[in-house]
Amino acid sequence: MSIVKSAGLTIAVLTNIAEVPTELLVKKIVAEILQLSPNDEEPKMISTYEHIIKYEGMYDSGEGQKIEVCIENNRLYLRVQHEYIATTQVAHNLFRLPDEKYITFETDRSGRVCGMYRGMRYYSKQSV
Asked: In terms of Cα–Cα distance, which of 60, 9, 64, 66 is closest to 34?
């Protein structure tokens, strides 16, 4: 799922087939709706500490994989095992990884972050 708040869009892609590039589908849908040419750069947001602090914490897949989300210089980073991965915010709750994949944060009705998707895998937020 992706939210492009500036365009008033929420996009969800549902699939029951593994290895479907859902992030690419979302990106193509956004480009088509916003009428972006293939050469247009993906929209970026300016991340502020006040906006991204809610994402900070430990996330658990329930399958033994854990990801720590931390902030450094107003930028969100993922700590996955021994890797420290920088992200680029491209929409309200959508962040691009250096490998051109995406993570999407999920919030409840009150706006509290309760989990995130990294590819097809869901991670529940465990702590701040």
From this structure: 9
